[in-house]
Design a protein that fits this description.
Shape: globular
Strand content: 5-15%
CATH class: Alpha Beta
Number of strands: 7
Bound molecules: hexanoyl-coenzyme A, NADP nicotinamide-adenine-dinucleotide phosphate
Helix content: 40-55%
Number of helices: 10
CATH topology: Rossmann fold
CATH superfamily: NAD(P)-binding Rossmann-like Domain
CATH architecture: 3-Layer(aba) Sandwich
């Protein structure tokens, strides 16, 4: 038996107050780590940190801002005395026909996903290199980074950028002992993703029918992979983008089937209603 240990490690999880970030944080703590989670909503990160227990602390940070990220990560180092890994998990996404997107809508997602990942990686990498410390960056992408995907243009573009960042930094920072990997999850139901990306029960039924495994991913399955990648069991594992999707990606990009099966104008109406249900509600 070789257990996955993250004993003594301090791990930052952006967007760790909800969904997959929160469940990864939970797994890291079970493996012995201490965890700093962040998000924009103070009540959400505080409640999550409290539920995660004494090994977790919650911080308000907006990853779109370099100043906010610098202040957050400096505070983490001050509070915990070290920083071993960052998980770039914070994201934004929604379904929209690309011809309806405003520049601001495109920018909103790119700034969270791509700029946010750059800010956190740049600060942490700079810290590790300056202090001659090893480091570990884990980025959360999607299965459509190589193919693009209908109705999620801002996310597809931003996540493809994060994939390029992953591969670039893995090579460039290997000699500093900094590993950089990405996980590409298939569908894992979370409140945040489902409210914005699952149009309703009929779509869901069809979506599940098409999945090769006919089931969604379970949070603990993702947590185990993330913990392994951040552990000392994987020192030679860098520059990898690992899908965990039950082979979902092999049937084609996640939302392309909507275009194949439904009327575009009907879809636009559904997307508008989804926008109204989620917009500024957070
Ligand atoms: C079209 C939309 C929109 C929508 C917002 N906008 N929602 N356009 N459809 N559903 C537009 C607004 O009209 C505005 O443009 C611009 O986007 C910015 O909106 P804000 O609300 O001011 O932005 P912000 O507060 O920064 O919110 C970002 C957000 C929001 C992405 C829009 O949904 C959010 O905070 N999301 C965080 C959580 C999240 O998305 N989780 C899901 C991740 S799941 P105008 O022109 O009007 O000013 C994921 C899974 C991928 O990534 C794989 C699939 C399974
Ligand atoms: P989620 O619960 O909505 O998580 C997104 C998190 O990011 C929230 O906690 C949100 O908190 C935070 N966030 C958004 N903008 C931020 C900002 N500017 N600064 C700091 N934090 C910010 O969705 P999820 O499903 O768990 O997604 C987690 C990750 O998995 C994302 O990278 C997503 O793309 C990826 N993913 C998910 C699936 C899936 O099926 N669920 C599939 C593929 C990939 P605030 O709003 O409070 O800031």
């Amino acid at each position: 038996m070789i257990p996955i240990s993250l004993q003594d490690k301090v791990i930052v999880v952006t967007g760790g107050g909800t969904g997959l970030g929160r469940s990864m944080a939970e797994t890291f703590i079970q493996c012995g780590a201490r965890v700093a989670i962040c998000g924009r909503r103070q009540n959400v990160v505080e409640e999550a940190a409290q539920a995660l227990g004494p090994s977790a602390r919650g911080y308000v940070c907006d990853v779109r801002s370099w100043e906010s990220v610098s202040a957050f990560l400096s505070q983490v180092v001050a509070d915990f005395g070290r920083l071993d890994a960052v998980v770039n998990n914070a994201a934004g996404n929604f379904l929209a026909a690309s011809e309806t997107l405003s520049p601001n809508a495109f920018r909103a997602v790119v700034e969270i996903v791509l700029m946010g990942t750059f800010h956190v990686s740049r600060w942490a990498g700079g810290y590790w290199i300056e202090n001659r410390l090893p480091g570990n960056i884990l980025n959360i992408v999607t299965t459509y980074t190589d193919t693009g995907c209908a109705f999620v243009l801002p996310s597809a573009a931003a996540k493809a950028g994060v994939q390029a960042l992953t591969l670039t930094l893995a090579y460039e920072w290997a000699e500093y002992g900094i590993r950089v990997n990405a996980i590409a999850p298939g569908p894992f139901p979370t409140e945040g993703a489902w409210a914005r990306l699952m149009p309703g029960p009929d779509f869901e039924k069809e979506y599940l029918r098409r999945l090769p495994t006919h089931r969604y991913g379970r949070k603990e399955e993702l947590g185990a992979l993330a913990a392994f990648l951040l552990s000392d069991l994987a020192p030679y594992l860098t520059g990898a983008v690992i899908p965990i999707d039950g082979a979902e990606r092999l049937q084609g990009a996640m939302f392309n089937f909507l275009l194949q099966q439904y009327d575009r104008e009907v879809l636009k109406g559904i997307f508008q209603r989804m926008k109204e249900a989620t917009y500024r509600k957070d």
